[in-house]
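Troubleshooting: if your tokenizer reports a length mismatch, compare your output against this known-good record of 144 residues.
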Amino acid sequence: MAELKTKPTNQDPKEFLNSVQPEQRRLDSLILLDIFQRLTGEKPVMWGSSIVGFGQYHYKSERSSQEGDWPLVGFSPRKQNLSLYILPGYQQEPDLQLLLQKLGKHKTSVGCLYINKLSDVDKDVLEEIIKKSHQLMKKRFAES
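Known-good structure output:
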């Protein structure tokens, strides 16, 4: 089994985010850092070179022999958008689906929420999604 490359590092998340370009992506990332920290009560940790994660869980894939650790929730200021790792299993969560309908301009994938800039979305709704996702992940992995 190949070793996972995305692991917690000692890099300072704020230092990383202060280097993000363009300027609007940097500012949005610093706002997200504050939001995630406030809502989760978790200390931010860099995962690999570009993901800021909060909390941690251990997973074992049922479909493959892959297993490892991953943040409960997190985000990454990617070149194309802000990628928020907050939606694993959201398709089975009616509350999250309703909140996504109210969020504003965004895209989703299996476990990610993609937004171009924070001004595209309702920040109160985004905060509720982050909070609910963090709680769901903590509950899910406390039970396993």
